[in-house]
Write a structure and sequence with these properties.
Length: 174
């Protein structure tokens, strides 16, 4: 009888143990965070489409073929993603803030874009509006795709803003 009770207790204990959630199963499921640079690389086409809708509203005659502009904006996005991914030291951050240092890929790509848009009849205000819209598209779409990654991406958002600001700076003659 004692033996029967022990086995019944073991069975009962085992069923309770199996039904009780572990401390790990109570925790929220771990989610993979999509980094901003990764989002830009994987969703470039969607970002370009949304940006293009805004660009159509600007009152300038499009001299550039649509495909050419799409490729050019995609190149700007890729150079921004590279800039975000590149490790940055403290003195480099300070140099950027003081507009010092050597121009990187984003500045070169942005300068080419500015030249093309000015030749197409755009003014500086319209070009700056394009870059503002590009930043807004990237952030809005990233937040919609991965709100958790967006919430944790303050440093990457700062790097995006710096890259876009450097691109905008290329619109203003020195």
């Amino acid at each position: 009888m004692l033996r029967l009770r022990r086995s019944a207790i073991k069975i009962l204990a085992r069923s309770i143990y199996l039904k009780t959630p572990s401390r790990y199963s109570i925790l929220p499921e771990a989610r993979r965070v999509v980094r901003l640079s990764e989002f830009i690389r994987t969703d470039t086409e969607r970002i370009v489409r949304e940006w293009e809708e805004f660009a159509k509203t600007l009152p300038a005659e499009p001299d550039l073929p649509r495909w050419f502009l799409r490729v050019h904006i995609a190149t700007i996005l890729q150079s921004i993603a590279e800039d975000i991914e590149r490790p940055e030291l403290g003195f480099e951050q300070q140099a950027k803030g003081n507009e010092e240092g050597t121009p990187g890929p984003i500045e070169h790509v942005a300068a080419a874009h500015v030249d093309l848009r000015i030749e197409s009849g755009f003014d500086l205000v319209q070009i700056m509006a394009e870059y503002r819209a590009l930043r807004a598209c990237v952030l809005r779409l990233w937040r919609a795709k991965d709100p958790h990654g967006f919430a944790q991406g303050a440093e990457e958002i700062t790097r995006l803003s710096e890259a876009v600001d450097r691109a905008v700076a290329e619109t203003v003659p020195a």
